[in-house]
Specification:
The complex is a heterotrimer of chains A (333), B (273) and C (151). By secondary structure, chain B is an alpha/beta fold. Helix content of chain B is 18%, strand content 32%. In chain B, 53% of the residues are buried. In chain C, the strands form two sheets. Chain C has a four-stranded antiparallel sheet with strand order 1-8-3-6. In chain C, strands 2-7-4-5 form a four-stranded antiparallel sheet, with no helix packed on it. The longest helix of chain C is centred in the last third of the chain and has 30 residues, at 120-149. The chains are: A alpha/beta (333), B alpha/beta (273), C alpha+beta (151). Chain B binds chain C through residues 74, 146, 171, 173-175, 180, 182-185, 187-189, 191-192, 194, 207, 209-210, 213, 216-217, 220, and chain C through 12, 57, 59, 70-74, 76-79, 99, 136, 139-140, 143-144, 146-148, 150-151.
Chain lengths: 333, 273, 151
C-alpha cells in the first residue's frame, strides 16, 4: 500500500481501452448536462474523461445503492467495475455507508458484492465548485484512505498511488500489460503544491462556516424557530437526500413470490416514521426538515463515530427552493 | 437466521389461528426449517406480495419447529393478517434485534409490567424465565388490559400461578360484571407487589402510554434508570439497521434494540410517541 | 384491636416513620373488619378516619344519578384511602365497598391532626405521604382516561 506509480497518458488510454473491452465496466466523469457526470467509457469517449476537477453530479453511493433493486436473490456479477474520478468527499461518505451496510451480524449482500467487485480510483480536486466545503469537516480535497487507488495528473503523466490491497493487486495486474513505472518516493512536489492551493482556496471561501463539533453542538441545542424559517419554502421533494453521498435510507417493497424490492426513500417524505396506529412523529414539515440535520450532524456521527456530511455541497445546488444548509448553520452559529 | 441473505424469507405455514380477544389473534406457524430466536428478538413477517410487519414471537424460544405470533389489528397490514386461514404460507425474516438479557436477571427479582398486546413478547420471556427459574429469586407479572374481554392468554395465568416463584396479578381499566380481580390501571398493582427494589429488574412492555406511566411510577418507587427494561416500537422496514425508518435519535431500534434500558434511551426525543 | 409496632413496620405506607411516630399512630387507630359486599362509606359521606387497607380487596367508584354505581378501580393492600378525612370539609369523593373479607386500619383524623400540632415533622411526613397517594391516584386516573380516549 501507499506505493506510487507513474503512467504516461497515451499508455493510460491504451490501458483503459483494453480493460473496457475485456473484463471491466469503466465509469469516469465527462462533461455533460452543463456540468460533469459519470458515463460508461469505451474507445470513442475515453479522451473526454475529465480528471482532477470537482465533481461528478452523481454521488458515489449510486453505484452501490441504486434507486431500485430486487434484493431477493444475490446479484450476478458479470463484469467488475472501475470507477475513475470519485472525489475525496464521496470516498469519505462511503465509509459511513460501509459501517451501515456491512456488519458482522447482518450484511447487505448486494452492497458487499458490489463493493468487493468495484475498484475505486479517486482523484484530487485541482478545481473546486461553488459550494464545495469538504475542508470545513476535516476532509482534504484529495484522496486518502478509503479508495483503492488515487490518481493525479501532472502534464502528460498520471500518478497513481495505491491505498488498499485491492489497489496493489490491480496495479500488479496492469503492470503485466502496460508500462507502469514504480516510483521510489511517494510524494510529487508539484502535486503537493496544487493540493495546498486547493485547500487554501476552500478554507478562504468557507472561513465563516463552523466545523464539525460546533455544527453538531449548535444543531443539537437549536430551538424550533430556525427550522420553521428555513423549511417555509421546502416542498419535501427529497432532492437533497437523493443527491447526498451519505443519505441511504430505503423502503422494502413486497412483490409476489416473497420478492423484496429495495427502493430509495427519505425521511423528507411524509409517513417515513408513521406507525400502524396512525401516529406520525414527523408529520409536520419543519420537524422532518430538522430531522435530516439532526441525523446528519448529531445522531449518525454519534452512532457510528464517523462523518455524515462530507461538505460536497450538492444539496445546496440540488434544492429547488434554493435552501442552503450553510446559510442555516451560519445563522445558528 | 432465516437465510444468509437478510432480505430473503423462510417460508412458514399457518397451522392454527387462535382468537385471543376481539382485536387480537395468535397464529401458530410451522417454518420450513427449524427457526431459532432469543426472547425479545423479533421477526419480519411477510404476507406474500402484500406487505411485511415486525412482530416479537410469543412462543417459547426453546421450541424451534413451531412459532407463535400474536397480532393486534391496528392498521392496513395487520387487518390483512387477521384474514389468514390455516394452510396459508407466510414468509419470515430474522431473528433481528437485541433481546432480553436473561442472564443479567439471575439472582434477582423480576417485575414485569405488561399491557394489552405487550403480553405477547412477555409470554416468550416468561417461558425463558421458567426454564431458568432456579437462577431467579422471584418473577412477578402485573398485567393490565382495557377490559376483561381484552385480556389475552387467559390459560397462561392459571399455569403460571402454579409454578414456584411465579406470581401474577391482573387488572382491567374498565369493569365488566363477572370480573373478580382488580380494576384500575396496571400501575395500581405496583402498590401490592413489595419488590426488593435494589435487587430487582423491571420489564415494561405495552402501548406507549402504558410504558410512559409505568416507567414514571417505577422511577418513583425507587428503580434506577438502568434497572428498567423497555421494548420500543417503531415503524420498521428492513429490520437489520439499514433502511433508517426505525431510527430513534442515534439508535436503530431494530438493531440496537428493541429492548433498551431506560438509561440508554431516556434522552432521545419523542421517546413515548 | 390494635396493631403492634412491628406489624405496622411491615405496612409500606409506614416507611420512614420513627418508632415514636408509630407508637402514636397505634394509639389513635383501631382495626376494623368488613365482610363481602359491605359498604365502608358512600360518596359524599362525612369521614372521620384515614384508612389503610391491610388485607383483602376493596373496590372504589363514584355514583351517578339514580344510584348507579360505577366501579373505577380497586384499592390494594398497603394503600391508604379516605384521605378526605384529613381535610375540611371531610366529605368523601367516592364510595368504597369490600369485595372480599377485609381488614383495615382506621386512624382517627382529628386526633392525628392534634398530634401534628405537637410534632410538625410527623405532620410533614404524613401529609407528604397523603399527597403522594393523591398524586398517584390522579396520575392513574389520567392514564385510565387516556386509555379510553385512544386505541
Amino acid at each position: 500500500m501507499n506505493n506510487l506509480f507513474k503512467i504516461n497518458r497515451d499508455e493510460w488510454f491504451r490501458l483503459i481501452q483494453a480493460l473496457s473491452v475485456s473484463s471491466y465496466n469503466i465509469y469516469a466523469p465527462v462533461r455533460k448536462n452543463g456540468g460533469i457526470d459519470y458515463t460508461i467509457i469505451n474507445d470513442e469517449n475515453k479522451d473526454e474523461i475529465v480528471y482532477n476537477e470537482a465533481k461528478p453530479a452523481t454521488p458515489l453511493k449510486m453505484f452501490f445503492l441504486p434507486v431500485k433493486l430486487n434484493v431477493t436473490e444475490p446479484e450476478k456479477v458479470l463484469r467488475k467495475t472501475i470507477i475513475i474520478g470519485a472525489p475525496a468527499c464521496d470516498v469519505e461518505g462511503l465509509k459511513l455507508l460501509d459501517l451501515i451496510y456491512i456488519d458482522e451480524k447482518f450484511s447487505d449482500e448486494t452492497y458487499l458484492s458490489r463493493r468487493e467487485n468495484t475498484i475505486i480510483i479517486s482523484t484530487d480536486c485541482y478545481v473546486t465548485q461553488e459550494h464545495c466545503h469538504c475542508t470545513t469537516y476535516g476532509i482534504n480535497p484529495y484522496p486518502e484512505n478509503g479508495c483503492d487507488i488515487s490518481l493525479s495528473t501532472e502534464k502528460d503523466d498520471h500518478y497513481l498511488m495505491t491505498w488498499s490491497e485491492k489497489g496493489d493487486l490491480f496495479i500488479k495486474e496492469l503492470g503485466s500489460s502496460a508500462q507502469i513505472e514504480a516510483l521510489e518516493n511517494n510524494k510529487i512536489e508539484s502535486i503537493s503544491a496544487r493540493r495546498e492551493k486547493t485547500i487554501n482556496e476552500l478554507s478562504y471561501k468557507n472561513s465563516n462556516l463552523p466545523g464539525t463539533e460546533k455544527t453538531k453542538e449548535k444543531i443539537n441545542k437549536s430551538g424550533q424557530e430556525i427550522w420553521k424559517k428555513y423549511s417555509s419554502k421546502c416542498v419535501s421533494c427529497g432532492a437533497c437526500s437523493a443527491i447526498c453521498p451519505t443519505c441511504s435510507c430505503f423502503l422494502l417493497i413486497d412483490k409476489p413470490g416473497f420478492q423484496k424490492i429495495k427502493q430509495q426513500d427519505t425521511c423528507q417524505y411524509p409517513a417515513f416514521e408513521r406507525v400502524a396506529g396512525g401516529e406520525d412523529p414527523l408529520k409536520e414539515l419543519s420537524k422532518r426538515f430538522k430531522n435530516r440535520y439532526m441525523c446528519k450532524y448529531v445522531w449518525k456521527p454519534e452512532r457510528f463515530n464517523a462523518i455524515a456530511c462530507t461538505g460536497c455541497g450538492r444539496c445546496i445546488e440540488a434544492c429547488i427552493a434554493k435552501i442552503s444548509k450553510n446559510e442555516l448553520i451560519m445563522e445558528l452559529a | 437466521m432465516a437465510s444468509d441473505n437478510i432480505y430473503k424469507v423462510l417460508k412458514a405455514t399457518v397451522e392454527e389461528v387462535i382468537d385471543e380477544s376481539p382485536l387480537i389473534k395468535t397464529f401458530v406457524l410451522t417454518p420450513e426449517s427449524p427457526f431459532k430466536f432469543s426472547t425479545g428478538e423479533f421477526i419480519e413477517l411477510t404476507l406474500n406480495g402484500f406487505g411485511e410487519a415486525p412482530f416479537t414471537p410469543s412462543s417459547s424460544p426453546l421450541i424451534s419447529d413451531k412459532l407463535e405470533i400474536t397480532i393486534m389489528k391496528t392498521g392496513y397490514v395487520t387487518e390483512k393478517f387477521h384474514m389468514l386461514k390455516p394452510g396459508e404460507v407466510l414468509g419470515i425474516r430474522g431473528p433481528f434485534g437485541r433481546g432480553y438479557p436473561v442472564e443479567k436477571f439471575y439472582g434477582k427479582e423480576v417485575l414485569i409490567l405488561g399491557g394489552g398486546c405487550g403480553l405477547a413478547p412477555i409470554r416468550s420471556l416468561l417461558y425463558a424465565l421458567e426454564a431458568v427459574r432456579d437462577n431467579l429469586k422471584r418473577v412477578v407479572l402485573c398485567y393490565g388490559s382495557k377490559s376483561p374481554a381484552d385480556c389475552i392468554y387467559k390459560p397462561l395465568f392459571n399455569r403460571l400461578n402454579k409454578i414456584e416463584k411465579f406470581e401474577t396479578y391482573r387488572t382491567v381499566d374498565k369493569y365488566e360484571p363477572g370480573w373478580d380481580e382488580s380494576v384500575g390501571v396496571v400501575t395500581t398493582l405496583l402498590d401490592r407487589v413489595n419488590m426488593d427494589i435494589e435487587n430487582s429488574v423491571a420489564i415494561v412492555c405495552g402501548p406507549p402510554i402504558m410504558m410512559k406511566f409505568g416507567t414514571i411510577r417505577l422511577l418513583e418507587m425507587g428503580y434506577k434508570d438502568a434497572q428498567i427494561y423497555l421494548s420500543m416500537e417503531k415503524n420498521m422496514s428492513c429490520g437489520a439497521g439499514k433502511c433508517g425508518h426505525c431510527m430513534m435519535g442515534e439508535f436503530f431500534v431494530c438493531k440496537d434494540g428493541p429492548v433498551f434500558t431506560y438509561e440508554e434511551v431516556k434522552h432521545t426525543p419523542d421517546l413515548w410517541k | 384491636m390494635v396493631l403492634e409496632i412491628n406489624e405496622l413496620k411491615k405496612v409500606s405506607f409506614f416507611d420512614n416513620y420513627s418508632d415514636d411516630h408509630l407508637k402514636i399512630i397505634s394509639k389513635i387507630s383501631t382495626i376494623k373488619e368488613f365482610s363481602v359486599k359491605e359498604i365502608l362509606f358512600e360518596q359524599y359521606d362525612k369521614l372521620s378516619d384515614l384508612y389503610i387497607l391491610l388485607e383483602g380487596t376493596l373496590s372504589l367508584g363514584i355514583s351517578l344519578p339514580k344510584e348507579k354505581r360505577i366501579h373505577l378501580s380497586n384499592i390494594q393492600p398497603g394503600q391508604m384511602f379516605s384521605w378526605s378525612a384529613g381535610f375540611e370539609p371531610c366529605i368523601s369523593t367516592a364510595w368504597v365497598k369490600a369485595t372480599s373479607p377485609t381488614k383495615v386500619m382506621a386512624i382517627d383524623a382529628k386526633k392525628l391532626q392534634s398530634e401534628f400540632k405537637k410534632d410538625c415533622e410527623f405532620g410533614f411526613i404524613t401529609i407528604s405521604k397523603i399527597a403522594r397517594t393523591i398524586s398517584n391516584r390522579l396520575s392513574d386516573t389520567r392514564f385510565q382516561l387516556m386509555n379510553q380516549l385512544t386505541l
